[in-house]
Amino acid sequence: MHATDERQERYDFLDWLRVIAIFVLFFFHTGMIFVGWGWHVVNAQTIPALQWPMDIAHRLRMPLLFVIAGAGMWFALQRRSTAQFLRERTRKLLVPLVIGMFLVVPPQIYYERLLRGQWVGDYLTFYVTRVLQFHPYPAGDFSWHHLWFIAYLYVYILLLLPAMLWWKRLSPRLPPGAWLFLLGIPLGINEAFLKPVFPETHNLVSDWYIFNHYLLLTAYGYVMASIPGTWKWLSDVRRWSLIMGLAVFVLLVSGFNTGIIRHDSIADGVGANIFTWLWVMVFVGYGYRYLSFVNPLLRWAREASYPVYILHQTVIVAIGYYVIPMSWTPWTKYVVVLALSMGTCVILYEGCVRRFAALRLAFGMKAKRAAPRLASAEAQRVIRDDYQ
Length: 388
Hints:
Elements: H1 3-31, H2 51-79, H3 82-103, H4 106-115, H5 123-129, H6 148-170, H7 184-194, H8 208-226, H9 230-236, H10 238-258, H11 266-290, H12 296-323, H13 330-351, H14 357-362, H15 377-382
Helix pairs in contact: 1-2, 1-11, 1-12, 1-13, 2-6, 2-8, 2-11, 3-6, 4-12, 6-8, 7-8, 7-11, 9-11, 10-11, 12-13
């Protein structure tokens, strides 16, 4: 395969996986309203059938995004100086995070307070008298909520940059191989020993289990992207990854059902993370094999996915607040919230975000620039947006 073709395939399939993972977030966060796990807005009646799919999705959705983000760091550092890389990531991550904390997230907290009877009144008064006090959520009303992903990723960049530059200079000749299957073990050890002491909070300062978990996955993505032939090797062994991923799933479910494995035990932590990592390998392997192409949908979604990610949870919470009082069945409410939230995010993106320079900056998009009238296919690849 020609080197340029290999590079293009690599970018396309990772773009597809990122877009799909963000699309799945609509199903997941809509489901949070109906599983009784204590979310920002919750329906009185739950949908028990959603709990297993939601539990599995929780184990897979964000790990895949962090691995792709780590790979994107490798690709970006091949084309940029260190200063350019930091400026670009600050623009794409820190700026949307700060703006999102002031403008995107507060409506989620407002609707939560209304639903729980912790606030009565209009949004503007709530914003001035509660949000602008800057007391951290949940005791206060200032938070990054789902934008924790962006916050953690930016911190990872600052922490990992010296190691990433060292690895880039070293250019180790490390071939892909069976050792990749073992990368789930450190994830499992981290969860088994740190989760009981530092449960998941997404507050950065006392969230060591989650912080280390996604730090490792980001580093894995960077290292995998740096090793020539990794994606093809994962594609070649994709069936073995799938078989092992299914086997671990069956063993875990059987262990839970028989009582051999207890939830939140060491066996659960290690086994669940081996499951997570094997399925990341499955997604990457099958993605490389079947998603190494570009079409109009990917061209649109590649740019839209990040703004849609920033918007989606606020839209789901707002729509959910007005839907859950309805006398419909839980499944009807789920479908309505899901459909309306997807449609609303697309309308907001198409009608507002992508059309105005200030909003493009606020949502981490590149400034518009006119494409050459007779741009070659290779030129179109060069000017396309990077990964988040």
